[in-house]
Amino acid sequence: MQRLLLTLFGATILAIGAGSVPAAAASSQAARASSPAQTTVNEQQCTAVDSSGSRVCLALVSSTFIGQATVHSYPSSCAGYRVSLYDPYTGKAVVSTSLRPCGETPSKQATADASRFTELTAYAEFAMYDSSGAVLELAYTGEITYP
User: Fold this and answer.
1) Helix (H, G, I), strand (E, B), or coil: what is residue 8?
2) Exposed/middle/buried for residue 18 (C-beta within 10 Å: 0-12, 13-18, 19+)
3) I need a surface site. Which of 60, 102, 124, 146 has the fewest CB within 10 A?
4) What is the Cα–Cα distance from 132 to 108, expressed in whole angstroms?
5) Torsion angles phi and psi, residue 78, rounded to 5
6) What are the E-state strand segments in 25-90?
């Protein structure tokens, strides 16, 4: 069941990343009513990375936080990127993807159960790096709290 939910979330991220679904601006209730693929997403926050046209999203599916990025373009100096789920109360990453190649899109998903976060609240971070490890891009989603 969880694999199906992750697949559905991945399809939602691809649709949003392609700009075909304005779900990021819609309420979670409206998004749930708009399509069967979105009925399992309790809440979603997405942030666009303006300079690269990329997007990082955090979703709450059942009691699991899922972070994923879609990279549309990247600077020639990009060596890789990662998506991390952070606990806003401790400021620490709870889980991160491995460093992904800049040409890979969408990223692998960073997933963690809500119980691993203080006050059941998380946000996602997208970080793009050059070959020396310097940060080229940095973006964060809004916070989501498990009810």
Assistant:
1) helix
2) exposed
3) 146
4) 22
5) -70, 125
6) 41-49, 54-61, 64-70, 78-87
How many residues comprise the chain?
147
pTM for this entry: 0.72
Residue type, 83: V
- Angstrom distance (rounded) from CA 86 to CA 92: 6
Amino acid letter at 143?
E
d(CA 131, CA 118): 34
Q: Where are the beta strands (DSSP E) in the chain?
A: 41-49, 54-61, 64-70, 78-87, 92-96, 110-113, 121-130, 135-140, 144-145
Check: CB of residue 55 under 8 Å from CB of residue 138.
Answer: no
Q: What is the pLDDT of residue 41?
A: 75
CB 79 within 8 A of CB 130: yes
Q: Are 105 and 70 in contact (CB under 8 A)?
A: yes
**Which two three-digit tokens encode residue 7?**
């697949």
pLDDT in tens, 81-127: 999 999 999 999 999 999 999 888 898 999 999 999 999 999 999 99
